[in-house]
Amino acid sequence: MSDLTVFELALHNKKDIYQFYLEKSNQLQNLLCKEIFKKIIDDESFHLQRIQEGYEQLRKGEIFSNGSREGLRRSSRECFDSIFSEIVQDKNQSSSPLLTEIEIIDQAMALETSIHRFFATSEKEIGDQKIKDFLSFLAGEEYRHFNLLFNTREYLNDCQETFPQYPQD
């Protein structure tokens, strides 16, 4: 697969994932889920911008520059803990998540797994070291998102067990 093809596919996939997070974030009611999705939306926007820049460089026949990654990144655990500590202080937060939110997180985890696999596989097929490094960075970011989602899902499952939802008549 050519360098340009990898960037075209990455751009297409990232646009779809970004759109998924935007659409699903509006369906969430749990504040923790909303904040986690907001964080991932910010990350995905940054990734999309960098992929677009790389695509444009390659399309013009320029050398991929693998520009700045400033502002990145706390670990997924640090990010979750930070968001969680802010949420816990919100006394109006519902203690029982909707099953739908867990399903949305499951969908997001599946997307993150798929795009991680794409970046990790593509990295092995590319010769240019700067592109390899960029794809490795993106694969790491997707792995971090997966862990952030996994931690959120575990928390929601614990809440579900502690505060089960009962059917409303």
Automatic annotation (TrEMBL):
Gene3D superfamilies for this protein: 1.20.1260.10
GO molecular function ontology, one term from the record: oxidoreductase activity
Domain named Rubrerythrin diiron-binding: residues: 17-148
Pfam families: Rubrerythrin
Top-rank lineage group of the source organism: Bacteria
InterPro entries: Ferritin-like, Ferritin-like_SF, Rr_diiron-bd_dom
Signal sequence range: none
Listed name of the protein: Rubrerythrin diiron-binding domain-containing protein
Phylogenetic classification of the source organism: Bacteria, Pseudomonadati, Atribacterota, Atribacteria, Atribacterales
